[in-house]
Automatic annotation (TrEMBL):
Keywords: Heme, Iron, Metal-binding, Monooxygenase, Oxidoreductase. It comes from Nonomuraea purpurea. Pfam families: p450. It comes from the Bacteria. The keyword Thylakoid does not apply. SUPFAM superfamilies: Cytochrome P450. Belongs to the cytochrome P450 family. The keyword Heme applies. This is Cytochrome P450.
């Protein structure tokens, strides 16, 4: 594989379905071209940033490196369609799309719901839902698709419980999330056109606009009510901004965690020594959860745009040019992680960047950690045996994703 071929994989959704080949490409870029210009048909060109130190430096300098106008990698046609919708105040506009001071003010709206005190209050609910989903595994008679029957549902139930949505709406939220993040996958996407993608966004936004109106009329003390009735500079949130806030929490709040839980179990199956180690010492669960997050890196990239002429790793980057921050690459950087391709449930230190850094550090990081620990704390003591029952399959994506199928055979006690 040439360096140019390696760079082009970052703009190829199918590349993320082949973990081995992807990491070969990323390792090659780190060695030979860590700040690499990528110019492929259908995409606006960008610089690929693959080393941990460079990704971290860019994330921490939010004045120089802006989220707007290009927060994630998308095909140029889709970017144009979304920009047209945003100009009409009809498109998705979340914390991911914003820079300070607007970002700081809006982040504060929901921040208290993700602080340690709130997580302690939610811990009992997370544990109850973990038990419910492991009990369901027992009912599947020793075989299941762990993604579709467990991992995709458990964190969804947690985050939507936090929002205060009725369980009858959970299947709808799951389908819309899979269509949104799996837009480039033939199995999960609604279709391959920009209009197909925006139709998913519109379905999401319409649902949450209705929720905003309902919670403003009848607040219920949940996170949805907090968002609906928040005020910035004395005025209520714009309906579209409020709906976008819900979309971010409902989607990123469960899809990334479900990918980590599924990828974490697959890693334990493929590394049985680490599974035995973790079962023998449950005190390793916090470090094991961090290793799962590093290993999976469910958020594949965010983009930043230079607000002034600058340099990254000695490479000049002009004002207005964009960089792609590759988290799977940063989280396997040989300069930061000892033996980075070894799955180690006791890894310490573990300075992964899966939650980002700086002002855009993941709002739900504490919740994700709690959910991962709660599910495995319930599953591992009951998991007498587990093995693959077919080939796993990954979602084709350049943004958020992981396993879409994990067939397993197991014995629960």
């Amino acid at each position: 594989m040439s360096v140019s071929e390696a760079g082009r994989l970052l703009a190829t959704p199918a590349a993320y379905t082949d973990d081995r080949r992807l990491h070969e490409a990323l390792a090659l870029l780190r060695r030979q071209s860590p700040v690499h210009w990528v110019d492929v048909p259908g995409y606006t060109p960008f610089w690929a940033i693959t080393r941990h130190a460079d990704v971290l430096a860019i994330e921490r300098d939010h004045a120089l490196w802006l989220s707007a106008p290009r927060p994630v990698l998308r095909a140029a046609a889709l970017d144009a369609e979304l920009e047209t919708r945003r100009a009409r105040s009809a498109g998705l506009r979340t914390l991911v799309h914003m820079d300070d001071p607007e970002h700081h003010a809006l982040r504060a709206v929901g921040a208290d719901w993700f602080r340690p005190k709130a997580m302690r209050a939610l811990q009992a609910r997370a544990g109850e839902l973990a038990r419910r989903h492991v009990d369901r595994m027992a009912a599947y008679d020793g075989r299941c698709d762990f993604v579709r029957q467990v991992a995709a549902h458990y964190p969804l139930y947690v985050i939507l419980s936090l929002l205060g949505l009725p369980e009858s709406d959970f299947p709808r939220m799951l389908r819309l999330t899979q269509e949104l993040f799996g837009q480039d996958d033939a199995e999960t996407g609604r279709g391959g056109t920009p209009q197909d993608h925006t139709s998913v966004l519109e379905d999401f936004l319409a649902y949450f606009r209705d929720l905003t109106a309902e919670r403003r009329a009848r607040p219920t003390g949940d996170l949805a009510s907090q968002i609906a009735n928040a005020r910035l500079d004395g005025a209520p949130l714009d309906d579209n901004v409020a709906a976008s806030y819900y979309v971010l929490i409902a989607t990123a709040g469960h899809d990334t965690t479900s990918s980590t839980i599924a990828g974490g179990l697959e890693a334990l199956i493929r590394h049985p020594d680490q599974l035995r180690r973790l079962r023998a010492d449950p005190g390793l669960l916090p470090s094991a959860a961090e290793e799962m997050i590093r290993w999976v890196s469910p958020v594949k990239e965010f983009m930043r745009t230079a607000s002034a002429d600058t340099h990254v790793g000695g490479t000049p980057i002009r004002k207005g040019e964009s960089v792609l921050l590759s988290y799977p690459s940063a989280n396997r950087d040989e300069q930061v992680f000892a033996d980075p391709f070894r799955f180690d449930v006791a890894r310490d230190p573990n300075r992964h960047l899966a939650f980002g850094s700086g002002v855009h550090y993941c709002l739900g990081a504490a919740l994700a950690r709690m959910e991962i620990r709660a599910l495995f704390a319930e599953l591992l003591p009951r998991l007498a045996e587990v093995e693959l029952d077919g080939e796993p399959a990954w979602t084709a994506t350049t943004f958020v994703g992981g396993l879409k199928r994990l067939p397993i055979r197991y014995t629960l006690t």
